Amino acid sequence: MKFQALVLVLATGIVATPAIADENASNPLAAVNNTDIRYQYFDLGNGADKQDAFIEGAYMLRPDLKLKYELHYNSTDVTGTRFTDFEKVSLKAIYFPSQRPLNDTWAIKSAIGLEWILDLGDPEKGIGTGSDQIAPFGGFAFANTRSGLTLIPLLQHFASYNGPTDISQTAMRLIALQPFGDGYWAKADIKAPYDWENDAWPATAELQIGKNLSPGIAIYADFLIGIGSDRPYDKGAGLGLRFNY
User: Fold this and answer.
1) DSSP classification of residue 200
2) Closest Cα partner for 113 from 131, 141, 91, 132?
3) Separation CA 135–CA 206 (nearest Å)
4) 38, 45, 138, 191: which could form a disulfide with 112 (CB 3.0–4.6 Å)?
5) What whole-number distance in Å separates Cα of residue 15 and Cα of residue 17?
6) Which of 91, 54, 87 is nearest to 69 (CA)?
7) How far apart are CA 107 and CA 138, in angstroms?
8) Which secondary structure element, helix H or strand E, spans residue 3, and what is its range?
């Protein structure tokens, strides 16, 4: 029942108004409306893998308030048997308190918000954690008005409030997004969460290369790597199709 109710909420975010042309939806703090259809493959090591097919997108409720949504479906053989199932639904509200120029070259946008993660998986299948979470966060977007480079440092804390798995992670994240000519862009995304329950750093890095085929459609590829001895996966790759509204 939880899943059916939230699918209805997600569906209402598909229809939106035209996107701001100079902002890229790969920036989580961009004031844009989009829906992405994505697939990612993860090499978990020891011959196991995880495949994640998901929909994510955003809808601007107001010029200073954004709703992001995700729905994930997994296939994995991490337990020795391959299982497929829905993993999670995520709803994230982002409020932009201020946006102003810093000088002739840089502008800054601040953001605070709250994410709700509804876990739909089964840990015995190797899918999901079985525990729902809330995750407050805050961050900034520093935009270079000359080169188009955007730097986005974010801090978010994840905490479970029910279920069999105790979750307490504080995640530091740094995104660098650079547009190029002919509609191309590159994005680097480094995530370094600290797991308070297990005293671990399951860090990852992602490189994304994309191209805007038209104002309404873009495609991109992801290249992923796990970092350190606590990494959640060894490496991975993905593809995405984006619809801007």
Assistant:
1) B
2) 91
3) 21
4) 138
5) 7
6) 91
7) 17
8) helix 2-11
CA distances to 37, 116, 126 from 120, in Å: 19, 13, 12
Enter the tokens of residue 91. Answer: 């709803």
Q: Are 130 and 123 in contact (CB under 8 A)?
A: yes
Question: 234: alpha, beta or left, given left = phi > 0 and alpha = psi -120 to 50?
Answer: alpha
pLDDT digits (tens, 9 = 90+) for 124-158: 999 999 999 999 999 999 999 999 999 999 999 99
Q: By C-alpha distance, which of 238, 171, 184 is closest to 211? A: 184
Pick the closest to residue 154 from 141, 164, 163 (CA basis).
141
Query: Structure tokens of 177?
Result: 């997004």
- Torsion sign (Cα): 242, 211, 16, 155: positive
Give the integer Cα–Cα distance in Å for 69 and 47: 32
Q: One-letter amino acid identity for 146?
A: R
Question: Which amino acid type is present at position 200?
Answer: A
Residue 70 tokens read as 């995700």
Which domains does the chain possess?
Answer: 34-244 (2.40.160.40)
